[in-house]
Amino acid sequence: MTSRRSFVKKAGAGLLAAGASSVFGGSLRAAPAGPSPETGNAPPKDLFKIGMAGYTFRSFDLDRTIRMLDRIDVRYLCIKDFHLPLNSTDEEIKSFHDKLAAKRITGYGVGPIYMHTEKEVDSAFEYARRVGVRILVGVPQEKLFRYVNEKVKQYDIRYAIHNHGPGDRYPDASSIWERVKDLDPRMGLCLDVGHNMRAGKNPAADLKRYYSRIFDIHIKNVTGTTGEGETCEMGRGVIDIPAFVKMLRSVDYTGVCSLEFEKDGDDPLPGVSESIGYFRGVLDAI
């Protein structure tokens, strides 16, 4: 396991770049890891992309969100409905994508969307179809699993159920796996590594166990391994991020790792910059 001390020696440049951008308002465009804005492809050693969960910018409108994504050179966004409402018209959806495209950002998925009725399931899948994404991150009532499974077949859209830690009906990856393992292979998980750790489960170990059904990942770090743990900057918490990155490579994960930074909702950019810089530093250092 990489110690914090030895890792920081290797990755300090990436962290300093993040801090400088946060303080001086600069850009992280020179960061060597992550997807290339020009080609949309990840570096040869990594099949996955770096993205952002839309919930991170819950206090900001789309224009300000785009500006912040551009500053940290993140080009993939999991779309939340406060940036693009479920009842958006086709013209509004086009305008949304045009704004993203102007900064070379791709909306790759939608959600999480909570679903309590069949009507809400219908609405969510139709929304994903009209938005033009292939991943729908959802939190369904358990009674809806069979209905969602039929919608997955109808729309050919992968459905990724989000775990939310202790107290939730889906606290960790295993609680979702047990419910989807015998369903359509497009029924899977959005692995939230922070909530998984708060539920007392090792994110890297669960990635290894369930990678065949993990369609999306929300990356973060947390301050503890119980329900009292809170989101913190990625280099400061209890999750072994280098070990998780090694496992991403080991299982050839090809999706998006989207930072979901729940701390400081009214001023997320400093923590987001530090976290993305740290993650890119890990990618370069190991």
Overview features:
286 residues, alpha/beta, eight-stranded parallel beta barrel, 17% strand, globular, disordered N terminus
The total of beta strands comes to 10
**Uncertain segments of ≥5 residues (pLDDT<50)?**
1-39
Biggest β-sheet strands, sense, barrel: 8 strands, parallel, barrel
Q: What fraction of residues sit in β-strands?
A: 15-25%
Mean pLDDT score: 89
Helix content bin: 40-55%
Major beta sheet, strand line-up: 1-2-3-4-5-6-7-10
Annotation field: number of helices: 10
What does the model show?
This protein is α/β, with parallel strands linked by helices and 286 residues long. It contains 10 helices and 10 strands. It has helices spanning 4-24, 62-71, 90-102, 118-131, 145-155, 173-180, 193-198, 203-210, 241-250, 269-285; strands at 49-53, 76-79, 106-115, 135-140, 158-162, 187-192, 214-219, 221-222, 231-232, 256-259. An 8-stranded parallel beta barrel has the order 1-2-3-4-5-6-7-10, surrounded by 6 helices. Strands 8-9 form a two-stranded antiparallel sheet. α4 packs parallel to α5 (145-155) and α8 (203-210) runs parallel beside α9 (241-250).
Short note summarizing the structure:
The protein has 10 helices and 10 strands. It has helices at 4-24, 62-71, 90-102, 118-131, 145-155, 173-180, 193-198, 203-210, 241-250, 269-285; strands spanning 49-53, 76-79, 106-115, 135-140, 158-162, 187-192, 214-219, 221-222, 231-232, 256-259. Strand 2 (76-79), helix 3 and strand 3 form a beta-alpha-beta unit.
